[in-house]
Amino acid sequence: MRFRAVGLIWGLCIFNLIYVFLFCVGKMTHLNFKSTDDPDATIFQKYPIVWWSDLLLVSLLLICLWLYFMQREEINIWFVDICVKNTMVSSILGTIILCVLIIVAGWRLAIATGVIKGK
Length: 119
Description:
Number of helices: 5
Number of domains: 1
Oligomer: single chain
Organism: Roseburia faecis
Protein name: DUF1648 domain-containing protein
Transmembrane segments: 7-29, 49-69, 89-110
Radius of gyration: 19 Å
Distance between the termini: 39 Å
Largest sheet: none
Keywords: Membrane, Transmembrane, Transmembrane helix
Order of helices and strands: HHHHH
Shape: elongated
Number of strands: 0
Structural class: mainly alpha
Helix content: over 70%
C-alpha cells in the first residue's frame, strides 16, 4: 500500500510538472494550450485535462491512503469481521460508496469545467 501511495504522489507531481512545462512553453511560443479562448472562462474551463487527471490520481491516492491507514493502525479488525460475516452486503456497499464519492467529485468537476451546466 505504501508504495502505491508513493507512486501516486509521484505521478501526480510528474503530471502537474508536465502541464506546467506545457503552459510555460505555450507562453513563450504564443501557442495556446487552453481548451477555450473565452476570457471569462475559469481555470477549470481553460485546462480541463489537468483537473480531470488530478481528480483521478487524487481519488486513487485517497483510497490507497485510507486503506493503508486502516491496515497500519489495525482499526480494520472490526471492519474485517463485519465483511467476513456479510461478504455480499459489504462488498456491494463498499463499491457503491466509492463509486458515489468519485461520481460526485466528477460531477462537481464537470460543472466547474463547463461540461454540464450547474444551477
